[in-house]
From TrEMBL:
Gene3D superfamilies, per database record: Hotdog Thioesterase (3.10.129.10)
Organism: Flavobacterium macrobrachii
InterPro entries in the record: Cytosol_ACT, HOTDOG_ACOT, HotDog_dom_sf, Thioestr_dom
Official protein name in the record: Acyl-CoA thioesterase
Alphabetic keyword roster: Hydrolase
Family per similarity comment: Belongs to the acyl coenzyme A hydrolase family.
Superkingdom to which the source organism belongs: Bacteria
Amino acid sequence: MRFHTRKWVKPEDLNPNSTLFGGRLLAWIDEELALYSIIQLQNPKIVTKHMSEINFRSSAKQGDIVEIGIDVVKFGNSSITLTCQVRNMMTREIIISIDTITMVSLGEDGKPKAHGKTQIEYIKDRLTD
């Protein structure tokens, strides 16, 4: 699992139990998945189509730093399927895991568009001297 982003849990991220609000965490995850997919599929028009069961395993409190990890499961014709895990950097516990998330590449007409990708591309491989 490649961990791409860290978030600092601030007071506005807390629920009434003074722990990280699940909705806030899911928003962070969805944004990170979208950014990752936009870069991989080289298309700014990406939507979340599906998330499998979401398993909350632990939490985080104010001041904790959480890390969002993503791996590619497979490339479809117009989609990319990912897996995600978020961990608490302070306690080293897994906060949430999502086995499969499907992100879809759209064309100008708003319908699924083939992307032609078959494997992960790294930015360093796209840069030329």
